[in-house]
Amino acid sequence: MCGRYRLSKRKQLIEEYFETANEVDWEPRYNIAPSQNVGIIRQDPSRPRRDFSQVRWGLIPYWAKEASIGHKMINARSETVADKPAFREAFKNRRCLIPADGFYEWVRHEVACVIVRRAPPTGPAIPLAVLYEV
Hints:
By secondary structure, the protein is mainly beta.
């Protein structure tokens, strides 16, 4: 996952594209950062239904003593996610998607770093894989 992303599409487009079932008060945003509320899409395990809901960005492992650890837990590497204690249980049991239509990266140039937005040329959204805790 990236450090910042955007979801500028209307709620109706996201609901249609991902076939979500419920209504959430949500507005397009252009600079979504860790610790902010973000929209996620979860599959209900007991029935074939997707829900669009909001959560705070930053994984707080069930064993954490303080919620502030969530600010540091924003990226899980695919190579180690199944083994790291902070991500292991969520990886096994609690996965979801974050709809995005672009994300930001730092790109180093000769003189300075520049923020570059990456986005697909077509389509309403990029589904980003996410882990969550309840």
